[in-house]
């Protein structure tokens, strides 16, 4: 058996995509409800791309920011992964380049042969060569990536809030305005707002190219969850300081009906945050609000008259990090006070050498 690990060529792009779980139809997540999904099933509906869609995606696959590696066994493409070039906000607010690991998959008939381990070594070497001293990922399974030097850095929550019991603790008069806008307007607002928010949020990463393109199109999602609605908050000066994307999906089961699903919400000020949630928690003809991908330090629970109205439905790891250069990582973060700090790095750790990855 001959194993080769290398970047793919354009002519291999379609075959490379076919080994990915989201294309091949194999499981992509642990068989448990995930915190980032607002539905009630363990797995979100899988919509496999057509051959035509694969060809279109493969045509634009190889870019400066998408850096794939593939595993070939006796000449056959058997697994793949990739690094995407992103920035991450460190404690203190500095933003630095990070290699984002994504699209990892090995065909079931080639598992347990060390293919992912060898691809991981090539990917992390690529990060080092480009000067990225951090590598990060969102893990599909909690037992895989620790062996390659990754550890959990942030967590996320999934909330469920009873609408009829979600009154706020103190009265609030919004100095700004709320507005429902169309997808084209939202597509222009979100890139600017997100850049402002992520500069303030430790662990936030920059969006990949095209992340907001689908908002303007306004296409109905294939999973039948209904159209997206776009809510925008402007301050007293008319400047956008918050936005939310939500759906009110139809459900055949009365137990799941009347749910308002919050896909995204970001705010620059407490006033905007309070105003957005004030409306989302008080839509007529709804009984429950579900919000996924919420940071663990959000203050909504403590704004409610009854904190128990907000149920923490799921918690899971969010961002996993691998520190490829400890000294540079520590030098890049900043602190609110000037003082002395001594740290000792465990020399036995295996995360800095691809030979032991």
Topology:
Layout lengths: L2 E4 L6 H6 L2 H4 L26 H9 L6 E8 L2 E14 L5 E12 L8 H15 L4 E4 L13 E2 L2 E8 L14 E5 L1 H16 L14 H5 L11 E6 L5 E8 L11 E9 L2 H11 L7 E8 L4 H4 L6 E8 L2 E4 L2 H7 L25
Parallel strand pairs: 4-5, 11-12
Antiparallel strand pairs: 1-2, 2-3, 3-4, 5-14, 6-14, 7-12, 7-13, 8-9, 9-10, 10-11
Protein name: N-acetyltransferase domain-containing protein
Question: Overview of this structure, please?
Answer:
The protein has helices at 13-18, 21-24, 51-59, 115-129, 183-198, 213-217, 270-280, 300-303, 326-332, and strands spanning 3-6, 66-73, 76-89, 95-106, 134-137, 151-152, 155-162, 177-181, 229-234, 240-247, 259-267, 288-295, 310-317, 320-323. It is an alpha+beta fold. It has two domains: 3-152 and 325-356, Aminopeptidase, CATH 3.40.630.30; 156-315, Gcn5-related N-acetyltransferase (GNAT) (Aminopeptidase, 3-Layer(aba) Sandwich), CATH 3.40.630.30. The longest helix is centred in the middle third of the chain and has 16 residues, at 183-198. Residues 3-175 form the N-acetyltransferase domain.
């Amino acid at each position: 058996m001959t194993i080769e690990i290398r970047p793919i060529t354009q002519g291999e792009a379609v075959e490379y995509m076919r080994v990915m779980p989201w294309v091949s139809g194999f499981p992509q997540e642990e068989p448990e409800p995930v915190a980032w999904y607002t539905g009630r099933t363990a797995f979100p509906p899988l919509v496999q791309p057509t051959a035509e869609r694969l060809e279109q995606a493969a045509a634009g696959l190889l870019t400066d920011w998408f850096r794939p590696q593939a595993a070939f066994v006796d000449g056959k493409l058997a697994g793949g992964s990739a690094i995407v070039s992103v920035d991450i906000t460190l404690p203190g607010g500095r933003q630095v380049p990070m290699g984002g690991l994504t699209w990892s998959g090995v065909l079931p008939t080639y598992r347990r042969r060390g293919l992912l381990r060898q691809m991981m070594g090539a990917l992390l070497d690529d990060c080092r060569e480009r000067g990225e001293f951090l590598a990060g990922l969102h893990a599909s399974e909690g037992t895989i990536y620790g062996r390659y030097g990754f550890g959990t850095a942030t967590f996320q929550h999934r909330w469920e809030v009873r609408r009829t019991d979600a009154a706020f603790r103190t009265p609030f008069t919004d100095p700004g305005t709320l507005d429902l806008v169309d997808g084209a307007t939202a597509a222009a607002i979100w890139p600017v707002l997100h850049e402002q928010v992520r500069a303030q949020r430790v662990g936030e990463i920059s969006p990949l190219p095209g992340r907001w393109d689908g908002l303007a199109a306004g296409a109905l999602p294939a999973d039948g969850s209904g159209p997206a609605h776009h809510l925008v908050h402007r301050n007293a000066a008319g400047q956008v300081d918050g936005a939310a994307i939500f759906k009110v999906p139809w459900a055949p089961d009365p137990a799941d009906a009347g749910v308002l699903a919050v896909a995204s919400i970001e705010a620059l000020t407490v006033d905007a945050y309070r105003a957005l949630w004030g409306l989302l928690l008080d839509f007529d003809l709804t009984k429950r609000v579900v919000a996924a991908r919420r940071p663990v330090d959000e203050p909504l629970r403590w704004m409610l008259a009854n904190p128990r109205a907000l149920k923490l439905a799921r918690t899971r790891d969010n961002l996993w990090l691998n520190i490829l250069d400890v000294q540079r990582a520590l030098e890049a973060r900043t602190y609110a006070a000037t003082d002395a700090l001594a740290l000792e790095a465990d020399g036995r750790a295996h995360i800095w050498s691809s030979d032991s990855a």
